[in-house]
UniProtKB/TrEMBL annotation:
One of its GO terms (molecular function) is ribose-5-phosphate isomerase activity. One of its GO terms (cellular component) is cytosol. It catalyses: aldehydo-D-ribose 5-phosphate = D-ribulose 5-phosphate. Its EC number is 5.3.1.6. This is Ribose-5-phosphate isomerase A. It comes from Levilactobacillus bambusae. It is an enzyme of class 5 (isomerase). SUPFAM superfamilies: D-ribose-5-phosphate isomerase (RpiA), lid domain (SSF75445), NagB/RpiA/CoA transferase-like (SSF100950).
Length: 227
């Protein structure tokens, strides 16, 4: 099975956990895209009553086009479950997210969700975080000074760019990626990054996920991370 097939496999597996009446958070990314397609099929075929909150404009649009009810986070009082992708998950179920520049909204939705599930192909499972560049969402105003500070801290930052300029998030902020190779102490790094004025949010998602579904050639593996 290739990577796309594994992503589709976990996307389809994840929607089996969705129950009628749920308030559901929808993540962002290519794996989530398959999940939302599968969710749309269930909504259409089984007439499920769901209320969904999306973590990006992209996901909101896809879901709405499939006839899934999408509301703003501020218009719901709770979320039962959020299903999202991830860029890396380590042996302790700590994660890096933000490859799709959506980690700010993803983290806000995640912390307001009773349960969180991540769906990944097996290439995302690592022993130690850090091979994947760690994304930060930063306020454009003064961001070159934030970049310099991060450089001085030895964190090897680069702005995430397109051919035409800065990658912009849905909140119209920039993204800086930290090229770290290895993150020995994720909690300490998270605390350091939380203290930098101008950094809105980082892509370390620590102690957050309850269930991980890993796509493997011999079938999806469901891992329980925490209650
Ligand atoms: O954090 C994310 C977006 O900000 C995504 O969940 C993450 O990048 C995984 O994406 P994909 O499923 O396309 O590999």
């Amino acid at each position: 099975m290739n990577q796309d097939q594994l992503k589709e496999q976990v996307g389809r597996e994840a929607v089996k956990f969705v129950e009628d009446g749920m308030y559901l958070g929808l993540g962002t990314g290519s794996t989530v895209r398959y999940m939302v397609d599968a969710l749309g099929e269930r909504v259409a075929n089984e007439h499920l009553n769901l209320v969904c909150v999306a973590t990006s404009e992209r996901t909101a649009q896809q879901a709405a086009e499939l006839g899934i009810t999408v509301r703003n986070l501020d218009d719901v009082d709770h979320l039962d479950l959020t299903i999202d992708g991830a860029d890396e998950i380590d042996d302790n179920f700590q994660g890096i997210k933000g490859g799709g520049a959506a980690h700010l909204w993803e983290k806000i939705v995640a912390i307001n969700s009773t349960k969180n599930m991540w769906i990944v192909d097996e290439s995302k499972m690592v022993h130690k975080l850090g091979q994947f560049p760690l994304p930060l969402e930063v306020i454009p105003f003064g961001s070159t000074h934030v970049l310099k500070k991060l450089t001085d801290m030895g964190l090897h930052p680069t702005f995430r760019m397109t051919e035409t300029g800065h990658v912009m998030t849905d909140s119209e902020n920039y993204v800086i990626d930290l090229h770290l190779n290895e993150i020995d102490h994720p909690h300490e790094l998270a605390a350091q990054l939380d203290g930098i004025v101008g950094v809105v949010e980082h892509g370390l998602f620590l102690d957050m996920v309850n269930t991980v579904i890993v796509g493997r050639s011999d079938g999806p593996e469901v891992l329980r991370a925490r209650d």
